[in-house]
Design a protein that fits this description.
By secondary structure, the protein is mainly α. It is built from 9 helices and no strands. Helix 4 packs antiparallel against helix 6. It is globular, with a radius of gyration of 20 Å.
């Protein structure tokens, strides 16, 4: 077994893969929220549609998409492997869980929050990526119109709000945990990563949750034609 393979199969190697893929997905979130903000451009959705169209036909973006899906799969698989290994290493729970002192339920159950987020992503891809990129949409329907219709559906709005909220708690712990895994865990930098992670998680939550709420209550997107 080569040293690289041995490292990747080790406990720290798996956590490193989790950290790197997680941070890569954080970069994607920034790009994704930038695209969504174009829905607030005040036009008929043209800026959002043009951005989405150019992204679909940009070879660099298409290559990044491959890495994105690979990162999601790798992140999920490593999470499952690490969770199972931890369960095997500690088959019997302690009578008094002192190790949980000072930690939140979300930080102790990243696997659960991650599973809910993965379920949400699957529904999100089914509603938008599948009809826009795989199956053809009707000629008179744009992605902005499809987005507006989804955000006026109370069931999807609830799913979206719950998914984004769990994403917030997942990021709250995962962001600083990633830097801890990568070695930036000394007393000098820990407060910085903690504050940055909290700010990033809060920014993503406020940003993404604004779309379904504002669209559902007709506070945004009125200029976008309905399907």
């Amino acid at each position: 077994m080569t040293p690289i393979k041995q490292y990747l199969l080790s406990s720290i190697g798996k956590k490193t893969i989790m950290a790197c893929t997680g941070l890569f997905l954080c970069v994607f979130l920034l790009e994704h929220i930038y695209g969504n903000i174009l829905l607030y451009a005040g036009d008929d959705g043209s800026a959002f549609n043009e951005y989405s169209h150019s992204a679909c036909h940009n070879i660099i973006i298409r290559i990044v998409e491959i890495f994105l899906f690979a990162a999601i799969i790798a992140h999920v698989l490593q999470a499952i492997i690490i969770t199972r290994e931890n369960a095997k290493a500690r088959p019997v729970k302690y009578a008094v869980p002192t190790s949980h002192a000072g930690s939140s339920w979300f930080s102790r159950n990243m696997g659960i929050t991650g599973s809910i987020i993965f379920f949400f992503i699957s529904i999100h891809l089914y509603n938008f990526f599948l009809p826009y990129r795989i199956t053809a949409m009707p000629d008179n329907v744009t992605l902005a119109m499809l987005t507006k219709a989804a955000f006026q559906n109370p069931v999807y709005v609830c799913i979206y709000v719950v998914g984004v909220t769990f994403l917030f708690f997942h990021l709250l712990h995962g962001f600083r945990s990633a830097f801890h895994t990568l070695g930036a865990n000394n007393k000098k930098y820990t407060p910085l990563w903690k504050a940055t992670g909290t700010g990033f998680a809060l920014l993503m939550w406020i940003g993404f949750i604004s779309f379904p709420i504002l669209f559902y209550f007709n506070l945004a997107g009125n200029n976008i034609p309905s399907i």
